[in-house]
Amino acid sequence: MRNYFISFLGVTLISSFTYFSILHSSKPLAIPYSRIAFVSELASSEAELELLKLEKKSIERKLAYMSKALKRAQLEKILLSSKLKKLNHNKLTDTRAYDIAFNRTLQHEKGYGIDNNGYAVNYGVNQRWYTPLKGFPIHVSGLNKDLVRKYYYHYYFKPLHLDLKYNQEYINFIFDTAVNKSVRLSNVIDKKANGDLELAKQLRIKHLKSWFLSGNTGTCRESCYQALVKRVESFKEV
């Protein structure tokens, strides 16, 4: 028992001595590494938090700008839609525009006959340039009005993209020019006139004069030439 007490007293004295030595020592007390790491991580987390706050503000500004841009785009879409409705209200449908142009041209191209160069012609379809569609007769004499209508639509109206133009009388004239002269000439006149009917008429008459003066008119003489000019002049703005 005595030995145990002496041992306990010794341990107590050593512990007390160590405590006071540390307390009065001039050297700073060493901080555990785990504590330093914790403080460092805390500082790093605070910095990251500040960066996230800045990024949040930046994203909010961008979202606000995009929201305004979207509203402007929606407004422009509404205005454009309104303009398109006005245009489409005045624009004739493809089929209706063609029906009017076709009937207008057939006022001048009537039935079967022989042209100035001796070729068979039927409703303006000339045997010299005739390319039958599938199921069509080989000779133009076998064409009826319904077949001619399909033929003109395929070879004349669609290639000229006349369904995209708004002025019906201008459509009538350009289509008639293709039938009476050629699709090539119609394209040239259309590009130069650009919707101006009077200018288109002047260009076609100029071509007729050059053609007539060239002498390559077959049996067409002065009266025939004047009839062609009169046909051009019959188209007028409504």
For the structure shown, list the relevant keywords.
single chain; 238 residues; mainly alpha; 2 domains; three-stranded antiparallel beta sheet; 8 helices
Layout of helices and strands, plus pairs?
Blueprint: H1 2-23, H2 33-90, H3 94-105, E1 112-114, E2 120-122, E3 125-126, H4 145-157, H5 168-180, H6 183-193, H7 197-214, H8 222-233
Antiparallel strand pairs: 1-2, 2-3
Q: In percent terms, what proportion of residues is strand?
A: under 5%
Q: Percent range for helical residues?
A: 55-70%
Count up the helices. 8
Mean pLDDT: 81
Structural class: mainly alpha
Low-confidence stretches: 2-11, 86-93
- Shape designation: elongated
Outline the biggest β-sheet: 3 strands, antiparallel
Describe the structure.
The protein has 238 residues and is mainly α. The protein has two domains: 36-90; 94-233. The protein has helices at residues 2-23, 33-90, 94-105, 145-157, 168-180, 183-193, 197-214, 222-233, and strands spanning 112-114, 120-122, 125-126. Strands 1-2-3 form a three-stranded antiparallel beta sheet, with no helix packed on it. Helix 3 (94-105) crosses helix 5 (168-180). The termini are far apart. The model is unreliable at 2-11 and 86-93 (pLDDT under 50).
In short:
This protein has 238 residues and is mainly alpha-helical.
